[in-house]
Amino acid sequence: MTDRKVTAELAAWIVALTDADIPAEVRREGVRTFVNWLGCAVGGADHETVDAALRAVSPFSGPREATVLGRTERLDPLHAALVNGISSHVLDYDDTHLKTIVHPAGPVASALLALAEHREMSGTTFLTALIVGVEVECRLANAVYPHHYDRGWHITGTAGVFGAAAACGKVMGLSQQQMQWALSLAATQSAGLREMFGTMTKSFHPGAAAQNGLKAALLAEAGYDSSLQGIEALRGWANVTSEKQDYDEVLGELGSRWEAALNSYKPYACGIVIHPTIDGCQQIREEIGADRVAQIAGVQLYTHPLVRELTGKTTPQTGLEGKFSVYHSAACALLRGDGAPTAFTDEVVRLPEIIALRDKVQAETDPAMHEASVRIVVTFEDGSTLEKYVERALGSLERPLSDEQLEVKFTDQAALVVGADLARDLLAHAWKIESVDPAAIARASVPATARAEAS
């Protein structure tokens, strides 16, 4: 329990913040966050998980005024927020706030873009709200991590709903009281279990957080009241879901310390703790050549215990399970040099040559190893060995993706769904989000053939 009025103080900050209060470098990172998110949402649009979600919810849609990114279907904004949130996370390729392994943009951007097709907003307003939502989500995640995560909560779902509510409430111009209601309505809808990793339901978490956060803001705007201290109360979110409640992480240096500036972007489409292993195995493949890979007798990984805890699936049967198998990822990086979405399909996971090499991979936990590092020892059939140590992988804060690398990532995945020309056009518009209509970007993601048929 705390004497601080956390929900009230956070709400007051959200309401009072202006566009000019956000430093230029933070706004620039917000643009990068949007670019990365849009590429992932379009890139995941044709996944079977999205197909199943649409079959389930489409019959119950209200007025179909919001776009399902990269597809022909339209839904009401609440359902569009859900499906686009699923699409943006299903490849496990989206952004990561590395302090807590939360994926900030999925819940926030999915809710905001759906709202933008219902209520007119400028690109500047959209970007400010996106940054506000990411900031709120990451600060609340910081406040309860790692105890909350260790209990089994999927922090992207549980913290993401606050970010979506804050972002949408900011656009709606909620009063402080309404914003407190929205945050508390978000708190009571906070959900997501780590048990679901490796299944379709993992991507449901950011989708549901987007839908529920938007719903929370709409309810608050309509006068639907709630607790005014849903975050910090004795039976509020932080105390119920975690043994740790560090409210300085929520309220400390608000407006001067920006968690939204610390976002990172994945070069590999899988659990973030696998990235050092993929990075190292790709380097080994480049050093020894493809022919020498065929002579590997064994691969020993020395990793932080969290790696096996999160990604210890030794015999994945589906592409989604492969994203949580450090064994599959190592084999695929060595044999194919691949860590993109193409490495994590049902077909690739079941390839005999991948399975054969995967079975030679062993992982040993080393508590002294940083969770973002790995030591790899490859033994060859002639008895020789090669060792590789990766302190921080590509995509980390120490080795961030450049704008050019983000562009390649965007076009490579989006082009597979909507074609290369449309992917390039979308990318160009995403970089200019502050000066364009967000709703127009959503509508422009529909494949050209579908637009032509509709006209």
UniProtKB/TrEMBL annotation:
The keyword GTP-binding does not apply. One of its GO terms (molecular function) is lyase activity. This is 2-methylcitrate dehydratase. PANTHER family: 2-METHYLCITRATE DEHYDRATASE, 2-METHYLCITRATE DEHYDRATASE-RELATED. Residues 9-248 form the MmgE/PrpD N-terminal domain. Residues 268-425 form the MmgE/PrpD C-terminal domain. Pfam families: MmgE_PrpD_C, MmgE_PrpD_N. It comes from Pacificitalea manganoxidans. InterPro entries: MmgE/PrpD_sf, MmgE/PrpD_sf_1, MmgE/PrpD_sf_2, MmgE_PrpD, MmgE_PrpD_C, MmgE_PrpD_N. Keywords: Plasmid. SUPFAM superfamilies: 2-methylcitrate dehydratase PrpD (SSF103378). Belongs to the PrpD family. It comes from the Bacteria.
